[in-house]
Amino acid sequence: MIVEKSVAIASKLIETYLDPAWNDRVTPGIRSDGRMLRATFEKLVGLTSEDVYALWAATRRGEAASIQLALQALIEAACTRGQSDLAWLLGGAAHHVDAIGRTLGADNADTLLRIAQGPNGRAFTQLLVVLDAHALRQDIIELRIVHDETAELEPLFRAVHAIGRNGWREFGDLERAILGPGLQRVSSPEFRDSKDELLLQAADALASALAYCAKVLLAGDQLSREMTRMFTSLMERAFSGNGLCGLLCNPQLTQTLAELCQVKQSL
């Protein structure tokens, strides 16, 4: 799973600053409105990255004064972009910066559990369950997960993995019934610099190319002949044999990725 840094931070900010517990203007109804949250997320991603990063950095440090300044800067940036609705929503958290700083700055177990049950945590949970099931089917003793270094995600991913190793006991009865007995074969996530990891670079190129294909197809446009050929080939391999994980063992993968990178660079 590859998550761009700006996307990861925007998701974390929404989980935090649009939480009804820490925002006077967000009701449970608004929080459960997927369409509204998606629109808000896209607006947040579109703001100046420095303002978004500054708020999250202040939040991680747990400094209430810095959080207040960064939050106000982000609200002003939203107003400048004509996004008064986003500015209004973010303003609802202004009276809770002390609580946000105390809670999130501490990185305590309760905080990680709370975030693990948010959108990012649930997405990673599903990925771990799928990979663990694959490892069991293929009799893989230990399946390693290597992720690009992303400080905003490391505590969350490690917490979700620990919860899974413990049989998902921290989650509700219904979730445990759906997720199964717990993780058995997937190891705790490792975080590496992609500059030193060839497979991370390959995964990045692959994900970017597939995202481009999906965007073009969903818009109703046509792919180029080269992209159509490689997109079809990759999808056939992904859904045949051992599945997507088996793609990494395919002897033609190196050549396919090399061609994919060449085509991507020419776009």
Overall SS class:
mainly alpha
Q: Rg, please? A: 20 Å
User: Could you give a short account of the major beta sheet?
Assistant: 2 strands, parallel
Cα separation of the termini: 23 Å
Biggest sheet strand order reads 1-2
How many structural domains can be distinguished in the coordinates?
Answer: 3
Provide the helix percentage. Answer: 55-70%
Please mark out the parts with pLDDT under 50 across 5 or more consecutive residues, or reply none.
241-254, 263-267
Overall pLDDT metric: 77
Strand fraction: under 5%
Number of strands: 2
Continuous helix count:
14
SSE topology string = HHHHHHHHHEHHEHHH
Principal-axes geometry comes out as globular
Walk me through what this model shows.
- The chain has 267 residues and is mainly alpha-helical.
- The protein folds into 3 domains: 5-106; 115-192, no CATH class; 196-266, no CATH class.
- Helix content is 64%, strand content 2%.
- It has 14 helices and 2 strands, in the order αααααααααβααβααα.
- Strands 1-2 form a two-stranded parallel sheet.
- Helix 1 packs across helix 4 (49-61) and helix 5 (64-80) crosses helix 7 (97-104).
- It is globular and about 50 Å long.
- The chain starts with a helix and ends with a helix.
- The model is unreliable at 241-254 and 263-267 (pLDDT under 50).
